[in-house]
Amino acid sequence: MIGVHHGLRISRIIHTETQDGKGLVDAGLAQGTHKIHRYVGNVKSDKVKKVASPSQVAQALAWNGGIRHASVMLVSVNCHRLKAITKYLSKGKDIFFAKE
Known about the structure:
2 strands, 39% helix
């Protein structure tokens, strides 16, 4: 716990530098974009000139140790199954997932 301010307990403060008013998703995307640009600029230019596919994005984000406190996972999605699941989930307000 960091402290108490006006009766609220503060357990974590996240400062995102120049992300004024933006959330953690924006900050994370900015870090990912920066990592991809560094990957393209630092890997042998005859091998990598651009990142265009999902597997290349995963490789770039994981390059040189990846992004601190983040992990990369390349997932194959069954779009037909996803549509069915999305229709089902959109009806609920609280959704809990359990290991099978």
